[in-house]
């Protein structure tokens, strides 16, 4: 069997030792320096660089016109992991979700030119390779890395695309084995690639993967990750990591989705990105695996292309912004017109579930909903929020979360409302990104000005009247409301003690940026939320 030939062949063992002695004699190869530093703080290496130096991965790979795999996946993965990514293109493929329709290999001297351009100038930390379609290109890469050493080399020995199309023929396999593997800090073959590198050794079980990892290590890479995603009959995705001494069996739940095109490229890029940040190898792999699992799960239902293998969404965004999600578009100040704010005690008092209360308010004419679930445990808050989001999305009404940025993020709410003693708006904005709605409570012109500077979308101003709903709340009155509105560059919603008897007076203070009223008890401390909301809506409509 080919495998036993490899194992018993002194040639391969000798080769490994030769490489190791080469490593110690070639101290200029920074790849080695990096890995040797892992236990005692690889991040020390980055400390020598300027504080402004951004971790940098260079990907040497093929272009995928469908942008699911290859260079395009590498760029997205590195961007998602917060790392700069430069690119050397080895081949241009005509490719989509159906398969690979064409391959145009770059001349090796132009691959060399690209490598020189980037490596001579840009302080690359880690090189990651993907499609290397000719032995000459492999040689060019080897030469460039000797001339311009980097801290780590991640080799994804791409040979066959997910669609089954050959991207690097059998003649390249020996180039990988003899030239690149001995230089690699980690190689990340899947089962088929591991088998090809091991002269066709049969790999059918997790136990085979252990053997393969050990045998591949004999070719010289410091670490081996054999990916078991293609193993049949496994509900888990099992990968075997071998660092030359210890094995780690890394398991994660297999995500059922057609959108797996580009996972191999992306995983290797994420590992490279984490290494570039200074992570030790095992942590880099674990983070990368978790990232890919999350991205696959998040985008398991997205539809791009008609073929059997779709791409996934590295930035975890497509699902939440897809047209089908029912999410309202950009913030519209007129949504503040009838702002319903929930209260768990009132719902309990009247025997209303939060979902029934929210549904009734929306059906009665509420234009925006805030979940203000004080003193509710986080799990229950999140569960309630997820249920209410479905209702709000269905009616295209925005749903905001009071105080809890974490809950808003976890349930992908449309935004948050924060007070002066909650998380400051600028931090909430940094966490939530540019699209989410952020409202902030303001009682003074100064606070209103700061809200504008910090990137809020609207302000809530109150208490316009005394209220029993919020303890020790300062009442600013209609005059205070007007003063804040006049000072505010943002739209304003009035809050505090407002109901059908006084809403009209509030709306008539005569300032154009007062867009509506926010109410709790006038809607929810009532037996019939639907009727009360309809009545308040009628009063407001009459007042404008
Ligand atoms: C629309 C709106 N305006 C003001 C508030 C009050 O927020 P805050 O001052 O943070 O007080 P709590 O609601 O957290 O008690 C609000 N919730 N909504
Ligand atoms: C949550 C809240 N914030 C206020 C502020 O002044 O910022 S007043 C308030 C309570 C509003 O409840 P009701 O409509 O039952 O008076
Ligand atoms: Mg608050």
Automatic annotation (TrEMBL):
<keyword id="KW-0460">Magnesium</keyword>
<dbReference type="InterPro" id="IPR022998">
    <property type="entry name" value="ThiamineP_synth_TenI"/>
</dbReference>
<dbReference type="InterPro" id="IPR036206">
    <property type="entry name" value="ThiamineP_synth_sf"/>
</dbReference>
<comment type="pathway">
    <text>Cofactor biosynthesis; thiamine diphosphate biosynthesis; 4-amino-2-methyl-5-diphosphomethylpyrimidine from 5-amino-1-(5-phospho-D-ribosyl)imidazole: step 2/3.</text>
</comment>
<dbReference type="Pfam" id="PF08543">
    <property type="entry name" value="Phos_pyr_kin"/>
</dbReference>
<dbReference type="InterPro" id="IPR029056">
    <property type="entry name" value="Ribokinase-like"/>
</dbReference>
<dbReference type="InterPro" id="IPR013749">
    <property type="entry name" value="PM/HMP-P_kinase-1"/>
</dbReference>
<keyword id="KW-0808">Transferase</keyword>
<comment type="similarity">
    <text>Belongs to the thiamine-phosphate synthase family.</text>
</comment>
<protein>
    <recommendedName>
        <fullName>Thiamine-phosphate pyrophosphorylase</fullName>
    </recommendedName>
</protein>
<dbReference type="GO" id="GO:0009228">
    <property type="term" value="P:thiamine biosynthetic process"/>
</dbReference>
<dbReference type="GO" id="GO:0008902">
    <property type="term" value="F:hydroxymethylpyrimidine kinase activity"/>
</dbReference>
<keyword id="KW-0479">Metal-binding</keyword>
<dbReference type="GO" id="GO:0004789">
    <property type="term" value="F:thiamine-phosphate diphosphorylase activity"/>
</dbReference>
<feature type="domain" description="Thiamine phosphate synthase/TenI">
    <location>
        <begin position="338"/>
        <end position="523"/>
    </location>
</feature>
<keyword id="KW-0809">Transit peptide</keyword>
<keyword id="KW-0067">ATP-binding</keyword>
<keyword id="KW-0784">Thiamine biosynthesis</keyword>
<dbReference type="GO" id="GO:0005524">
    <property type="term" value="F:ATP binding"/>
</dbReference>
<comment type="pathway">
    <text>Cofactor biosynthesis; thiamine diphosphate biosynthesis; thiamine phosphate from 4-amino-2-methyl-5-diphosphomethylpyrimidine and 4-methyl-5-(2-phosphoethyl)-thiazole: step 1/1.</text>
</comment>
<keyword id="KW-0150">Chloroplast</keyword>
<feature type="domain" description="Pyridoxamine kinase/Phosphomethylpyrimidine kinase">
    <location>
        <begin position="64"/>
        <end position="308"/>
    </location>
</feature>
<keyword id="KW-0511">Multifunctional enzyme</keyword>
<dbReference type="GO" id="GO:0009507">
    <property type="term" value="C:chloroplast"/>
</dbReference>
<dbReference type="GO" id="GO:0046872">
    <property type="term" value="F:metal ion binding"/>
</dbReference>
<comment type="function">
    <text>Essential for thiamine biosynthesis. Bifunctional enzyme that catalyzes the phosphorylation of hydroxymethylpyrimidine phosphate (HMP-P) to HMP-PP and condenses 4-methyl-5-(beta-hydroxyethyl)thiazole monophosphate (THZ-P) and 2-methyl-4-amino-5-hydroxymethyl pyrimidine pyrophosphate (HMP-PP) to form thiamine monophosphate (TMP).</text>
</comment>
<keyword id="KW-0934">Plastid</keyword>
<keyword id="KW-0547">Nucleotide-binding</keyword>
<dbReference type="InterPro" id="IPR034291">
    <property type="entry name" value="TMP_synthase"/>
</dbReference>
<dbReference type="GO" id="GO:0008972">
    <property type="term" value="F:phosphomethylpyrimidine kinase activity"/>
</dbReference>
<dbReference type="InterPro" id="IPR004399">
    <property type="entry name" value="HMP/HMP-P_kinase_dom"/>
</dbReference>
<keyword id="KW-0418">Kinase</keyword>
<dbReference type="InterPro" id="IPR013785">
    <property type="entry name" value="Aldolase_TIM"/>
</dbReference>
<dbReference type="Pfam" id="PF02581">
    <property type="entry name" value="TMP-TENI"/>
</dbReference>
């Amino acid at each position: 069997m080919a495998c036993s030939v490899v194992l018993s062949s002194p040639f391969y063992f000798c080769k490994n030792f030769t490489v190791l002695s080469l490593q110690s004699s070639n101290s200029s190869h920074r790849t080695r320096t990096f890995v040797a530093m892992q236990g005692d703080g690889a991040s020390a290496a980055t400390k020598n660089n300027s504080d402004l130096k951004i971790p940098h991965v260079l990907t040497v790979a093929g272009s995928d016109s469908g942008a699911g795999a290859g260079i395009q996946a590498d760029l997205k993965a590195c961007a998602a992991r917060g790392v700069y990514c430069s690119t050397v293109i080895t081949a241009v493929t005509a490719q989509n979700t159906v398969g690979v329709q064409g391959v145009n290999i770059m001349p090796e001297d132009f691959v060399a030119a690209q490598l020189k351009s980037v490596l001579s100038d840009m302080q690359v930390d880690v090189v990651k390779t993907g499609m290397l379609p000719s032995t000459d290109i492999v040689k060019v890469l080897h030469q460039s890395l000797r001339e311009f050493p980097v801290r780590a080399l991640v080799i994804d020995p791409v040979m066959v695309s997910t669609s089954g199309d050959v991207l690097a023929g059998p003649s390249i396999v020996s180039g990988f084995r003899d030239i690149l593997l001995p230089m690699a800090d980690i190689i990340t073959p899947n089962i088929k690639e591991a088998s090809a590198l091991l002269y066709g050794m049969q790999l059918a079980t997790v136990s085979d993967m252990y053997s393969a990892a050990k045998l591949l290590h004999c070719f010289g890479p410091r670490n081996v990750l054999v990916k078991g995603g293609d193993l049949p009959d496994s509900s888990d995705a099992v990968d075997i990591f071998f660092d030359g001494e210890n094995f780690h069996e890394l398991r994660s739940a297999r995500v059922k989705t057609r959108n797996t095109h580009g996972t191999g490229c992306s995983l290797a890029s994420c590992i490279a990105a984490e290494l570039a940040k200074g992570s030790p190898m095992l942590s880099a792999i674990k983070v990368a695996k978790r990232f890919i699992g999350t991205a696959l799960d998040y985008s398991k239902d997205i539809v791009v292309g008609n073929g059997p293998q779709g791409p996934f969404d590295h930035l975890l965004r497509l699902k939440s912004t897809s047209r089908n999600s029912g999410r309202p578009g950009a913030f519209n100040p007129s949504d503040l017109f009838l702002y319903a704010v929930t209260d768990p005690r009132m719902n309990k008092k009247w025997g209303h579930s939060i979902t029934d209360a929210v549904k009734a308010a929306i059906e009665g004419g509420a234009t925006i909903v805030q979940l203000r679930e004080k003193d509710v445990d986080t799990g229950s808050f999140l569960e309630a929020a997820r249920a209410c989001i479905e209702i709000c999305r269905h009616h295209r009404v925005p749903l905001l979360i009071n105080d809890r940025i974490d809950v808003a993020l976890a349930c992908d709410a449309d935004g948050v409302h924060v007070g002066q003693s909650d998380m400051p708006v600028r931090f909430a904005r940094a966490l939530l990104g540019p699209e989410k709605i952020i409202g902030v409570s303001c009682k003074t012109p100064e606070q209103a000005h700061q809200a504008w500077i910090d990137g809020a979308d609207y302000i809530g101003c109150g208490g316009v009247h005394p209220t029993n709903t919020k303890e020790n709340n300062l009442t600013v009155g209609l005059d205070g409301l007007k003063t804040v509105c006049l000072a505010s560059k943002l739209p304003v919603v009035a809050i505090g003690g407002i109901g059908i008897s006084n809403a009209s007076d509030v709306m008539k203070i005569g300032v154009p940026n007062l867009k509506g009223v926010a109410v709790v008890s006038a809607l929810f401390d009532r037996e019939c939320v639907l009727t009360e909301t309809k009545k308040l809506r009628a009063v407001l409509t009459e007042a404008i």
